[in-house]
Description:
The protein is α/β, with parallel strands linked by helices.
Amino acid sequence: MAFSVLSDxxxxxxxxxxxxxxxxxxxxxxxxxxxxxxMLHQGVEVALPEAEAEILPQRVDDPLVISIRRDGLVYxxxxxxxxxxxxxxxxxxxxxxxxxxxxxxxxxxxSYGKVMEVLxxxxxxGIQQVGLVTERPGQ
Length: 139
């Protein structure tokens, strides 16, 4: 963008860019991302049990999350899946990722037996690295 500045002797162009609108747009985008980032979560929303467990270290890539809702439905990320097809569907996903770690989220009202059924299916499929997701008490 160039601006014309008239002077007595001749006409000069001012070649400065007005960055104020750019800064305004960047600040608005920053605020939007700050508001929406905490809303992004993996898997299906379940009421997690509370536990005083050590927090696992964060990795760069998103973890593969298996969720079990209160009614017993099993989800891989946000996609519902029948438990008998769980290992078949996870195999190619884990092979592409190069990481065999899986996080399991089970609703606190879910029976212990249902969680153990899913853990057993994962174990039978050769998936050994399973983390159980909980909430800290009081959150």
